[in-house]
Amino acid sequence: MTARSFGKAVALDDLARTDHPHLTAADQCWCLARYVSGPGYRAGQVNQLIANLKCAPSIAAADPARAGHKRRAIEEAAIAVRRAVSSGWAESVTWIPIPPSYPPGDRNYDDRLMRVLRVAFASDDADVRSLLYQVRTEPADHLRVRRLSVDRLYESVRVNVAALACRPVRASIVLFDDVLTTGKHYKCCERRLLQVLPHVPVSGLFLARRALSARGRRLPRQPYQRALGR
Fold first, then answer.
1. Rounded (10°) angle between helices 45-53 and 64-84
2. How confident is the model at residue 227 (pLDDT cuts 50, 70, 90)?
């Protein structure tokens, strides 16, 4: 597992955006790699890192080896983000992790995305805040008989008013997540933020995206090569 498996941040174009049906042409999102859905960690180093990163806190707490894998995945993900994001970009925006499936206080509440951002921008004057959280557990779609509706997910997402009030946000907001699938979580979080910060632009950065071929087959892992241009 290595951060070199991740490439430079690449903006989704119109073709790539069709793999993520909840996104629109107005959404500005970047990804560092492709994720192969289905084979799990066996599909390559990107899938391996994502699997270790997503290890449930309750499992990591009971298994020192799994905890070590998760810790190293956080460090590798942070290196990948650090390589993809310039100091100027890091310091000009407010970074907000997309909230996990479990609410704060639950034994499986997972702050992995916050930890990645803090490690990635440890040497920068970056504004990294947990401004969003979920009020109830909403398991991932692949664990459900029926996919979670956009309305139900939106109703579960809340703004952390105390974290928002502590200081003004910066010129724009970047929502951060590990894998972009349909774009549903991103859009619900964006909608919540725009309710309280209607004039602040929101964009997204993802470690990887689930990519589909023209026929709906998932593409093999392939690191990105084109730069973000920042």
1. 120
2. very low
CB distance 98 to 131 below 8 Å: no
| End-to-end alpha carbon distance in the chain | 27
CB proximity list for 84: less than 8 A, separation 6 or greater: 6, 7, 8, 9, 30, 32, 205, 228
Could you give the 3-state DSSP secondary structure of residue 203?
Answer: strand
What ranges make up the beta strands (E) of 98-147? 127-128, 132-134
* Side-chain half-sphere CA neighbours of 59 within 13 A: 13
**């990645």: which residue's tokens?**
116
Query: 174 with 203: CB under 8 angstroms?
Result: yes
User: Residue 56 and residue 10: Cα distance in Å, rounded?
Assistant: 29
Give the span between the Cα atoms of 212 and 230, in whole angstroms. Answer: 27
Residue 121 in this model has a pLDDT that exceeds 70: yes
Q: Which residue's entry shows tokens 């950065």?
A: 205
Q: What is the largest CA-CA distance in the chain?
A: 48
Q: Are 36 and 48 in contact (CB under 8 A)?
A: no
